[in-house]
Amino acid sequence: MYKRALTWLLRQTLKLDVYINRVYPTDWNPLYYTGGLANFFLFVLVISGILLLFYYVASLDGAFASVAYLTERVPYGGLFRGIHRYAADAFIVAVLLHLFRNWFTDRYLFSRDSPWISGMFLLILGWFIGVNGYQLVWDQRAQAITAIFVSMLYAIPLAGPPLAHLFLGGAGINDAMLPRLLFLHIGLASFLYVLLWWHYVRVRHPKIWPPATWVLATLGGIILLAAVIPVTSGTPAQPGVKVVSYPLDVFFLLPFWLTNWLPAGIVFAALAALGVLGYVIPYVSRESEPAMGVRHSGVAQVIDGNCTGCELCYYDCPYDAIVMVPSPHAGLTKAAANRKLLAAVMDSRCVECGICIGACPFEALELPKFLEADVKQHVAQAVTA
Amino acid sequence: MPKVIGFICDWAVSTEGLTDGQGRLLAHPSVSIVRIPCSGFIRPDWLEDALRAGVDGAFVTGCPYGDCLNREGNYLMRDRVEQLERRLQRRRVDPQRVAMLAHGLHDRQAFLGDVEAFVRRLAALPAQSAPAARPSAPKVSASREEAPQ
Amino acid sequence: MGKRSAYLLAVLALSGSSLVLAALILFGESADNYNLGGAALGAILIAYGLIGLFLRKLGFIGPRNAEGK
Questions:
Q1: Is residue B8 within a helix (H) or strand (E), and if so which, with residue range?
Q2: Tens digits of per-residue pLDDT, A258-293?
Q3: What angle do CA B94, A310, B9 make, to 5 degrees?
Q4: What's the predicted TM-score (pTM) here?
Q5: By C-alpha distance, which of B40, B88, B138 is closest to A312?
Q6: What is the predicted pLDDT for the residue at A290?
Q7: Res. A244: pLDDT tops 90
Q8: Is the pLDDT score of A172 beyond 90?
Q9: Contact at 8 Å (CB) between A347 and A299?
């Protein structure tokens, strides 16, 4: 069932590419750069966020007024606020596209669960930082989502009340809260870059930047949107007032909207369950792998006697799965007799793609379940056919 | 009809229903298809050896450039095929006998069109003179030519 | 050939409108109309992105031979 659905989704995902590739050259297809686009939007967020930081006052009395001053009085301040808001939406959209595309096209198999896990952390933290950003404005919407978020925290058994205390900096909403939120907003956003290091660490040439045409078009779209539909605050927050309605941002605030019908605890539990399911995805599929129609060629093996230590496989492996170690002894062939280095495959990083086999001109690498002899046999069959 | 062997990545163009039981293309029975884990799996020497073993042409098909499941297998293979073409030229073998194609899962028509063009290109070539024997120490000499640009 | 001249025409049209948009940016700046200037800035970036795409389609820019043809 799961396998069937995924196969269908794989076909549909790649079908979408067919149409996009008619308009764009294939290496400019935006869906091949969802990760790069997300990273680009994060960069835009950092730059615009630093500019907003110069004007922001993190206190219950000052926050709303400082944002209003920024929006209305500072030249291009409203524009930058809009850029920050819309880039955040674009970031979440790009991240979700990235998640679904890599899920549906099986790019999490074998050792590629590591980027998947770091990616889930990035998604959850990114969402949390976005919600934080809405709270910092401290209008009535901020007040409402803060109240809901705190009631979500309270719904956690045992750890809930202390967590809420920690989050608010006291028993109720007080002046210690906004500095905390500001720190969470900026500190966690910086921490995203630590997670991004983890996200990229085993990837040889990560595509972290989209093609120029997409940098220009998306940045232009964000700025245009910020200018045409300026971002505004609601009414200032008033302690004790029960907020009944506020404008909804579907990319960040959907869970808060659900609390209209469900208790906050249930929504929070559902979110947590969704998060856990996200982490489980690579491992669930792994169990049913033979049924997924994924070829298992076996981890690439180095043929010690033939390896000359030339490093070609080391440069070509897309996952940094090959390391060059000092050669403990000479190779057997003439070319390998004077080698200084020997290639070694790290099993835990290998995805069994065979790119190193194509890289090696010395027949020093092989896939155990798809040998050179098998290829030769196919060729012989083709000759007699 | 020229005999052709084509290596196709598991994730690239789907040949379901295009081939018979032995992996020959129904549209061109002289073209045999072999599925491989990634286009980058093919060692360029194998293409050369296939030409020497008696096929008239060999091609590799990967995913559209930019979309390799293994991130850069098709780009790497394109570079390797280009290097192989230069090497074949030095060995007096027509480099037009090898080709690198890139087609996604659903690009079956475009794929068949490219194969058709490849077969026609091969048919127009003068009959393959027996390729010169490989140099006596192929691995050593290959090392110079395979070095990255 | 029709396609090629259509792309060329699009590049020319976009370049022309970029000029107008650049003037709008300057006007918005001088009139302290930041949203007008911002909108023109956004639009000009989109126009540049499209010009890049069309130049690529025309074969003037881009990585060598990406389509293998």
A1: strand B4-9
A2: 888 899 899 999 999 999 999 998 888 655 555 556
A3: 55
A4: 0.92
A5: B40
A6: 56
A7: no
A8: no
A9: yes
Q: Which long-range contacts (CB under 8 A, 24 or more apart) does A259-262 make?
A: A259/A148, A259/A151
- Mean pLDDT of the B8-26 span: 90
Greatest alpha-carbon pair distance for chain B in Å reads 44
Strand pairing partners for B57? B4
pLDDT of residue A350: 92
- Identify from B25, B71, B77, B100 which residue to disrupt to test chain A contact, counting A C-beta atoms within 10 A and taking the largest count: B71
- Go through B55-68 and write b for each residue having 16 or more CB atoms within 10 A of its CB, e for each that does not: bbbbbbbbbbbbbb
C interface test, pick of A44, A86, A219, A223 with most C CB neighbours within 10 Å? A223
Helix H or strand E encompassing B62: strand B57-62
Are residues C38 and A225, on separate chains, in Cβ contact within 8 Å? no
Residue C69 has pLDDT above 80, yes or no: no
What number is the average pLDDT over the span B59-78? 92
Instruction: Please count the residue pairs, one from chain A and one from chain B, whose beta carbons lie less than 8 angstroms apart.
Output: 152
pLDDT given at position A384: 87
Of B24, B66, B148, the CB nearest to A32: B66
Residue type, A42: L
Q: How far is A260 from chain C (nearest CA, A)?
A: 36
